[in-house]
Amino acid sequence: MSGSDKARNQAQGVLGKAKQAFGRLTGDRAIEDRGRGDQAKSDLKGAGEKVKDAFKKR
Questions:
Q1: What is the per-residue pLDDT across 8-23, written as a single tens digit (0 to 9) for each?
Q2: Dihedral (Cα; 27, 22, 47, 45), 10-degree rounding
């Protein structure tokens, strides 16, 4: 996993948390849900990269 990919994934997760918190503060469920979605995407991308790294080591 390259450093820039890891940083992008982490940034997406942080932005997702911020969106979720903002949505919660304002009572906007759509923004809150988008934030959760961004966090999930970030987690899935990170997991995919870990799987790729595991196969590269073999």
A1: 989 999 999 999 999 9
A2: 100
